[in-house]
Amino acid sequence: MFTLNPRHEEGLFYVLAGIGGLVSAIGFAAALYMEHSGHVVTGMNNQIVWGLPHVIAIFLIVAASGVLNVASMGSVFGRVLYKPRAPLSGLLAIAMLSGGLFVIMLDLGRADRLIVAATHFNPTSVFGWNVILYPVFYALVGVYLWTMMERRMNPYSKAAGLATFVWRVVLTSGTGSIFAFLVARQAYGSALLAPMFIIMSFSWGLAVFLVVQTTMYAWNNMSLPPLILKRMKNLLATFVAAVLYFTFMLHLVNAYFAKNIAFEYFILFDSEFASQFWIGQVLLGSLLPLVLLFSPGTRDKVLWVNVAALLVILGAYFQLYVFIIGGQAFPLDIFPGYDVKSSFMDGAVDHYSASLPEVLLAVGGLAIAFTMTTIGVRILHFLPQDDLAELEAASGITD
Amino acid sequence: MNTPDNNPRRKFIAAAGAGVAGLGFTVIAPGLHLMAVGEASAATEARKAGTAASPAVRWGLLIDANKCAPGCTKCIDACHTENGVSEKLPDARQNAQWIRKIELVDRRDGRKTELPMMCQHCAEPPCVDVCPTGASMKRADGIVLVDRHTCIGCRYCMMACPYKARSFVHAPLTEQNPEVPRGQGCVESCTLCVHRVDKGQTPACVESCPTGAMTFGDLNDPASDIAKRIASVPTTQVRSDLRLNQGVRYQGI
């Protein structure tokens, strides 16, 4: 097995942190360029108003909430296996939320007016709620980490974990509601989106956690105990199947309504998004991971479980791309029963391709999350410390 | 129980009284009326500086699609000149369009119609609901506006608008009309020429229409041309299923 020399290990850390910092800085520079030139340098326009930055930002924000599920399983639901993993889950939550907010805030047309967003509050806006939801999430996860990592504060850990769990459910409901509350477009406006975003967060968060955990174990020349791998991959499979079920129901119900048939046909069969949906989200992002997680030859191999987790993350990207970009590409049905056209893309399908600054900004958000995680796990004790005897003793009861 | 404030009879009387007064009639003696000639055609009354917009007024537009001439873009030209909307970006989809002509073909019988589409100035505007900072707002007199000082450019209102009425300013601006401040990175839409309305004038699109297809006025005033026409001919609110109670109504679709 590959082992990491301690001397090389330190150098590798600095290289990784340096690359992460550099890519983050490039993302920030891209945002400054967009701010200076205007969004004319992006692929976004007056029909597709949210683009790749929103796809990546929403992935990071949703997965940030979901990755905290690992901590909740330990603190709130008392699962022994997950308790040692709670600090790492908290760190990842903060890192990914930071990356997501970095992207979404710097994509604003007037990013310099963030203070306006903080001082002018519209209580009917889900975006407005976010101004409260995100800072409180940071604070709660911070306190939660403190109660876990500071021995004197350990007695408060369960209460902090419960508060964080409740808050993250609210937060992800809010993210889903950003789309659920949109009356105008056929792709959105469904109450199903709030719970669906929660189950998506479970799936994507756990996938990210598995990959990071495996990397940390390998870094420390350790391997994940098979029992832990089995439990976590089974949980991931459950979440992946649940997301697939929600996706199926969302499209089935939408297609049942005559007014939405044209949109469903477009998104599922007759557009550039159809292949991304079927191949990207369904095949690569859902079915293949399920096969890998349950097949006798792959289900107990760390490598294949991690390939499955990476595929789930890839599928998340396709899912959000189809949902966000595809949902906007289809024209608004302003005049039902009429064929329409205008100089403003009425009645016409739009096409979107991200420009380089957008790509750099989006990748910059991923780099922020990566860098914060890399530095966090280096300077603090986030590596799960399993008591295998306790785990095996409890496994019969807790599972 | 009917209090003096909500007594229906009292309300009816008040409304009837307002209607009579609004018609410009003054009763001098039974059977003899003094009529203020010319008053009825004045579309609006100027708002005095320092006074707030009145909630008693609901500004609106009635657009007669039957009169909208095919290929005519005079309302668009007038709007964009009046409001300094002149940018021509390489990607036309990034240009602001406060008003646009839509060509409709009825799928049942192939009948063709054209009409101008702009912000519908909803009484229940989704853009105002979703705006995180309150920059999207509805004035007391029903005009939906964007405060350019508090818009952060998130474009959530553009996602929420069922009429695709809003544009995002994608590039730096030049040659702005001082009365209509615009800003890069902000969202904007038809203001119903609020700067003209406040001076007692009609919106530029209405004034420019060569066929008189557009009528501007106070929907709340039963004596106004617009209210009388809406009372006498079938009119449509686009996407009326959404129950947004638009200030812009259409005839002939």
Structure description:
The complex is a heterodimer of chains A (399) and B (253). Chain A is an all-alpha fold. Chain A folds into two domains: 10-184 and 358-380, Formate dehydrogenase/DMSO reductase fold (Up-down Bundle), CATH 1.20.1630; 185-207 and 231-331. In chain A, 71% of the residues lie in helices and 1% in strands. Chain A is built from 14 helices and one strand, in the order H-H-H-H-H-H-H-H-H-H-H-H-E-H-H. In chain A, 50% of the residues are buried. The model of chain A has no long low-confidence stretch (mean pLDDT 93). Chain B has 253 residues and is an alpha+beta fold. Chain B folds into two domains: 1-41, no CATH class; 46-251, Alpha-Beta Plaits (2-Layer Sandwich), CATH 3.30.70. Chain B has helices at residues 8-22, 74-82, 126-130, 156-160, 194-197, 204-208, 225-232, and strands spanning 25-29, 32-35, 59-64, 99-106, 112-118, 136-138, 144-146, 167-168, 187-188, 214-218, 248-251. A three-stranded mixed β-sheet of chain B has the order 10-3-11. The longest helix of chain B has 15 residues, at 8-22. Residues 1-42 of chain B have low confidence and may be disordered. At the A-B interface, helix 5, helix 6 and strand 1 of A face strand 4, helix 3, helix 4 and strand 8 of B.
**Overall spatial form of chain B:** globular
The most extensive contact between chains is: A-B, 49 and 59 residues
Supply the number of structural domains of chain B.
2
In helices, the fraction of residues of chain A equals over 70%
* Overall morphology of chain A: globular
List the total number of helices of chain B.
7
The assigned CATH architecture of the largest domain in chain B is: 2-Layer Sandwich
pLDDT average of chain A, as an integer? 93
- Largest beta sheet: strand ordering of chain B: 10-3-11
First and last CA, distance of chain A: 31 Å
Topology-level CATH name of the largest domain in chain A? Formate dehydrogenase/DMSO reductase fold
Radius of gyration of chain A: 22 Å
> Largest sheet of chain A at a glance?
none
Low-confidence stretches of chain B: 1-42
SS strand fraction of chain B: 15-25%
